[in-house]
Recover the amino acids of this structure.
């Protein structure tokens, strides 16, 4: 039974010009999968994340989450559902500058008024696993971008969500920090069987996933599974991207992955 089902989802933005951002898109995500979503600019990736994260509603079609339809929830139930079931990782980290690293990480539990012992226990475990212990008392402006993204990942994990949604999580990082963050996401995915959906423009980032779903003009274009070495998977991702158009695949095809 898939953990997430996107069924015939269409999203039309009405305005002076009607814009069909997604058109009858369907796919499933299994528990424990690490899925990348790729597509040219304007292909509907952010729209899709907004629908999965219940920030917006489809015009038609359904999104089913663990056998449940979030669209049928009341606004209050929906806010709780989002806080409880989803973890978010953004390109620009979205840490609160006035809070310490530690306070940022436990924020989802603070908002849910969880017991202090639970917060301390989970914080201690995560900080150790993600190697954050030495800067827990610093503020976001006192740490590097790579460290900030690790803090954001810890915050996304602390309430043990059903799905982690990551929107270009390496978009603001250099290649070393990107690799560290992607290795961390892979480790969390493998060890905790956490389900991760990651939107990315970066084929190297996508090569860390189990599957890549490609969309074009709001429609399903292709999907490929990683059943071989990462280098081969990376080359296959580049092949699909070159069919999709709009990238600089030629510059990347000679890259050897570390
Ligand atoms: N709120 C909105 N109102 C009207 N049109 C929108 C809105 N949001 C997105 N669109 C349009 O829907 C289409 C898909 O946009 P979306 O942002 O989902 O693409 P994307 O694949 O995430 O692009 P990018 O990679 O550039 O972030 C685009 O044509 C965009 O202009």
């Amino acid at each position: 039974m898939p953990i997430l089902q996107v069924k015939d989802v269409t999203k039309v933005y009405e305005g002076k010009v009607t814009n069909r951002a997604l058109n009858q898109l369907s796919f499933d995500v299994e528990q424990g999968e690490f899925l990348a979503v790729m597509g040219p600019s304007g292909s509907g990736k952010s729209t899709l994340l907004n629908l999965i994260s219940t920030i917006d509603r489809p015009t038609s079609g359904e999104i089913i989450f663990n056998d449940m339809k979030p669209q049928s929830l009341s606004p209050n139930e929906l806010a709780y559902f989002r806080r409880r079931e989803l973890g978010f990782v953004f390109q620009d980290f979205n840490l609160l500058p006035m809070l310490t690293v530690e306070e940022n990480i436990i924020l989802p539990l603070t908002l849910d008024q969880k017991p202090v012992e639970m917060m301390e226990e989970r914080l201690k475990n995560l900080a150790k696993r993600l190697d954050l212990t030495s800067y827990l008392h610093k503020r976001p402006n006192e740490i590097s971008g790579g460290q900030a993204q690790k803090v954001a990942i810890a915050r996304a994990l602390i309430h043990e969500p059903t799905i982690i949604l990551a929107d270009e999580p390496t978009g603001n990082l250099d290649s070393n920090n990107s690799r560290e963050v992607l290795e961390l996401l892979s480790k969390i995915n493998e060890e905790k069987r956490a389900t991760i959906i990651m939107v990315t423009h970066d084929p190297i980032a996508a090569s860390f996933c189990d599957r890549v779903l490609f969309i074009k003009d709001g429609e399903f274009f292709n999907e490929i599974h990683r059943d071989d070495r990462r280098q081969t998977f990376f080359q296959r991702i580049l092949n699909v991207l070159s069919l999709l158009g709009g990238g600089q695949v030629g510059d990347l095809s000679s890259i050897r992955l570390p």
Q: What stands out?
A: The chain has a mean pLDDT of 92. The chain is about 40% helix and 25% strand. The first helix runs from residue 45 to 52. The CA atoms of residues 73 and 81 lie 9 Å apart.
